[in-house]
Amino acid sequence: MRILKPILIILAILVVILGAGGFYYVSGLGSVDENNTDEVYVTIPQGSSASGIVAILDENGLVKNKTVAKIQARIGGYDSLQANTYVFNKSMTLTEMMNAIDKGDFNYVSKRSFEMKEGYRLTKNAELLAKEIPYSKKEILKKWADKDYLKELIDKYWFLSDDILDDDVMYPLEGYLAPNTYFITDDDPTIEGVTETMLDQMDQELTARKDKIEASGFTVHEFLTLASIVCKEGGSNASEAPHIAGVFINRLNNNMNLGSDVTVGYIFEYEDVDLNTQQLSSDNPYNTRKFAGLPPGPICEVPVVDLDAVLDYTQTDDLYFYAGPDGTVYYAKDNAGHQKNVEAHPWPAKNQEQ
To answer: pTM for the whole thing?
Structure first.
């Protein structure tokens, strides 16, 4: 009995310790504030580890006990964590949030987003963005033209240069905002915040291609300008983009005008290339029918397929191309061949020719 009593005391102490430890652990997994249901937007990047996600949740004030959370991240069996933007709140437990991320639970995925559409001009994308954030199209475009703000961006992003400040450039950030669907993670989004989110995405795209851009002989501004023209000329026929890029590069190398109607359309905010004589004779420097070389800047937001089309353009002797009514693109090495293509595949109204 004398030996049994100390053993029982030790066991009792262990039970108390284990109970206290269990309570501490379970409590640490609990909610930060069970009465606070205010939405908190949390973005989980691709490739995040469980411990990395705990750190993100903690930064957003959603972790009650960081030590316990780190242990749970290791032993929780989270093996399919889904990158996305989630909407949580402080009344949720850590387990609830981690399970939601592990399953990519649609109930918690942010539905609040905006799209920067490829091939759209900046003014049209500003109009779409204005529907998703508390600023008007006019306010957005004003910020995007603010030279003090633009200079701050030039200092921050390697691919932005004083080229965008040229007086002939119609919209300085045209072509620099990466097309994509973006989730809004701030309760009170700002123009600066969403702009830099898009520039961050473009940074990734251009950095991945930096060596090729430098080898191309184009500056980043020239590269994006040409890629934007290829984008507009190719339209939905992306497979033709490398060949179209090859034609334009041949024209540049031969000191020929690009002769692209889409650059003239940009002057007048026309998507249709059925332009009249007065428009085609415009003295605006974007008129590549009248002026040799590239226009002052990009004419739309450029998808990666057209970035790559310019970098890996088709080696060709062609100097002309013509899109027929059925969408087929016909190429020619000289004007005579080009005219034959136009005559053989006429449009019902006015021919839309290169």
So the answer is: 0.74
pLDDT digits (tens, 9 = 90+) for 109-147: 877 789 999 999 999 999 999 999 999 999 999 999 999
Domains and CATH numbers, the chain: 28-103 (3.30.1490.480), 113-316 (no CATH)
Q: 273 with 265: CB under 8 angstroms?
A: yes
Which tens digit of pLDDT belongs to each residue from 8-23? 556 656 655 555 545 5
Q: Indicate the average pLDDT of the chain.
A: 89
Predicted pLDDT of residue 354: 45
